[in-house]
């Protein structure tokens, strides 16, 4: 799979990369991940394959979102949705500014849970999103019950803002400011 973005994490001694989701290639693995016990309580997409096919087609055709597989040493282990806040339901839930981006993620492969990969993967995706020079902030709205993921977002440089009501969950609005992210990761970048 050709990577859209790649970063070597010197601490983990692993290459992290992201490649756009390809419907035919990736439908089965993403469907499998959505049905994992650690995923479906937060994503609510543990659907039979046919309705899930329709969901993924619709998501891939949405110009507002870009879907990625996250890979570690070329092994797909995670699913990512990068999106523009403008036009999203979250746009009116805080004082958004032009070119704010958002992110959704899951680690799908159970064998990679608890290995300390969530933070390196999240750091790499946020760095990838900040390659858009006009973007000053990245937001996230993890399920307010997902304490592990909230902790990972905080370690990456996201600040908790407030709970927000979304159609499928109560999320915790979190914002990562470009300047803060770059300051936080400046010294770390030497070994990434």
Strand order of the largest sheet: 1-2-3-4-5-6-8-7
3D shape: globular
In the CATH scheme, what's the topology name?
Aminopeptidase
Q: State the CATH class.
A: Alpha Beta
Per CATH, the superfamily is Gcn5-related N-acetyltransferase (GNAT)
Gyration radius (Cα, Å) is 16 Å
Overall pLDDT level: 94
Class derived from helix and strand content: alpha+beta
Number of helices: 6
Helix share, percent? 25-40%
Q: Which strand-content bin applies to the residues?
A: 25-35%
- DSSP E strands, number: 8
Low-confidence stretches: none
Tally of discrete structural domains: 1
Looking at the overall shape, the CATH architecture is 3-Layer(aba) Sandwich
Summarize the biggest pleated sheet: 8 strands, mixed
Notes on the protein architecture:
This protein has an eight-stranded mixed β-sheet with strand order 1-2-3-4-5-6-8-7, sandwiched between helices. The protein is of the alpha+beta class and 192 residues long. It starts with a strand and ends in a 6-residue tail after the last helix. Helices cover 31% and strands 30% of the residues. It has a single domain, classed as Aminopeptidase, CATH 3.40.630.30.
């Amino acid at each position: 799979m050709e990577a859209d973005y790649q970063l070597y994490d010197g601490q983990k001694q692993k290459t992290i990369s992201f490649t756009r989701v390809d419907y035919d290639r990736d439908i089965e693995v993403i469907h499998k991940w959505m049905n994992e016990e650690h995923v479906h309580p937060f994503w609510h997409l543990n659907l039979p394959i046919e309705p899930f096919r329709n969901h993924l087609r619709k998501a891939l055709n949405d110009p507002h979102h870009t879907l990625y597989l996250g890979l570690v040493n070329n092994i797909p282990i995670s699913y990512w949705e990068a999106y523009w806040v403008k036009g999203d339901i979250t746009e009116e839930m805080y004082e958004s500014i032009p070119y704010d981006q958002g992110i959704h993620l899951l680690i799908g492969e159970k064998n990679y849970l608890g290995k300390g990969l969530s933070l390196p993967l999240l750091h790499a995706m946020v760095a990838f999103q900040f390659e858009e020079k006009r973007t000053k902030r990245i937001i996230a709205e993890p399920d307010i019950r997902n304490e592990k993921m909230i902790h990972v977002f905080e370690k990456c440089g996201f600040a908790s803002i407030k709970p927000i009501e979304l159609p499928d969950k109560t999320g915790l609005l979190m914002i990562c400011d470009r300047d803060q992210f770059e300051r936080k990761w400046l010294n770390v970048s030497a070994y990434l």
